[in-house]
Amino acid sequence: MMNRMKNRGSISNPGISRETLSIHEEEIVLILDEMEKGFRVDASNLKDQKNLYDEKLLDLQKATEKNLGKRLRLNSSKELGELLFDQLNLPALRKTQKYCDSVSISVLERLLELYGTSYLFLGPLIEFKRIQPISKAIKTVFKKLGPDSRIHPEFNPFGCPTGRIYSYIQNLPREVRTCLIPDNEANVFIELDWSQQELRILAALSGEPVFLDCFSKGEDLHKRVISEMFHKPISEVTPEERRLGKTINFGLLYGQEAYGLAWNLNIPIDKARGLIDQYFSALTFIKGFKEESAERFWKEGFAETAFGRRTRLNLESGNTDKEIRRGFNHQIQGTGADLLRFTLVSLNEGLNRKMARLKFIAHDAVYLEALKESAPEIGEHAKAVMEIDFKGVHLPVTTKIHPDFSMGEAPS
DNA sequence: CGTGAATGCGCC
DNA sequence: AAATGGCGCATTCACG
Questions:
Q1: A349: exposed, middle or buried (Cβ count in 10 Å: 0-12, 13-18, 19+)
Q2: Distance between CA atoms of residues A340 and A197, nearest Å
Q3: For A218 and B7, how far is CA from C1' in angstroms?
Q4: Of A39, A344, A356, A400, which one's alpha carbon is 20 to 30 angstroms from that of A384?
Q5: pLDDT score recorded for residue A343
Q6: What residues form DSSP beta bridges with A95?
Q7: Which nucleotides along chain B are within 7 A of a protein C-beta?
């Protein structure tokens, strides 16, 4: 334990507000330690799954190469790029960060849409790229299996400037998480999830009346936004329109602009521009908050969460747009991270560890492990702790009880 | 052969 | 010129 405390070190990011964080710093470290006990793994299930996926992958590779008429190293972005853009002369739709032609799944999907009938190998290739990460993730789990047959997350509380706490277990594909199971047969996992945490934080920080009204009435935010943009009743918002609303709402959190929205929705950039205009015309406080934030960043040189966690912004040189986006996101994502930290401490104090154990965290979710019989009651208790008002905005929590770690929602 | 950059995927 | 925030991991590739 002492070793661990030492290894954690102290706050390494000079931009972080020490006053705020030091309140719970040591307790957080102890809680993370506890959670690093990690998960028991259903290894035989995992092995079976891997075999199935590997079989599929082999077939898909064969199908790809058969349709292509030659061998291909599906893993090599370089080789794939040369094939698509040099040999087959397909259009390069996106650049990578280093200005190469991207061959990511999203690019391949567009190519499939455009040229799928002439290039049959695209289908199995995409499928391959989809499935391969699952097999890889399983391999990683096996690699990380300790002598105790468990996998242990390694939480780094100070790694990320926004304050988020990361672990590789957070990004295991859902299919793999099914094989992470409670410590014994009598136990279950309790998942506690803030719904739309970041959008609610944005509502509070911006004071946007549409958001506030929507949340207080318990309406669907994505539909409501469309209703405001297109001046139509919520009941007439189509599912496709709702998806559009969702895309814009989440893009907003990351500072997405017309170019990105156009790519996401597969629409012309003018149209994306129009949609963003409509969005900000309907949600003037959001627009104001964005503008006010940027001005403040320029003046102060840092962005700050609602609880004072700071990140410095480099606005003297380089990509200042990116820095402004980062700052804007920091306010929201970082505030969410603060809330999770506070919650963690409260839960830890309130839980009877004999009955329930803090098991895992994932940014806007907390997982407990408890006896099956006591799970509903413990879930209620934890929900009450987490369900707070933030600057007058209620943060509702959904509770789910699982026999394994395959939590999460179906994509909607 | 190890290392680090670059890419692309996973999750929130 | 870039164009969506945060991270961890595996793989490829260039280099010493």
A1: exposed
A2: 10
A3: 42
A4: A39
A5: 93
A6: A101
A7: 6-12
Contact A168, A340 (CB under 8 A): no
Nearest nt by C1' to A334 Cα: C6
CA distance A152 to A92: 41
pLDDT tens for residues A51-75? 999 999 999 999 999 999 989 999 8
Residue closest to sugar C1' of C3 by CA: A259
Q: Are A262 and A272 in contact (CB under 8 A)?
A: yes
Which segments in chain A show pLDDT lower than 70? Answer: 1-23, 352-354, 408-412
Look up residue A312 and give its two tokens.
């410095």
Tokens representing residue A23 in the block: 């309140």
Domains defined for chain A, CATH in brackets: 1-38+159-208+285-412 (3.30.70.370), 48-143 (1.20.1060.10), 216-282 (no CATH)
Nucleotide nearest to A250 (CA to C1'): C4
The DSSP H or E segment spanning A193 is: strand A187-194
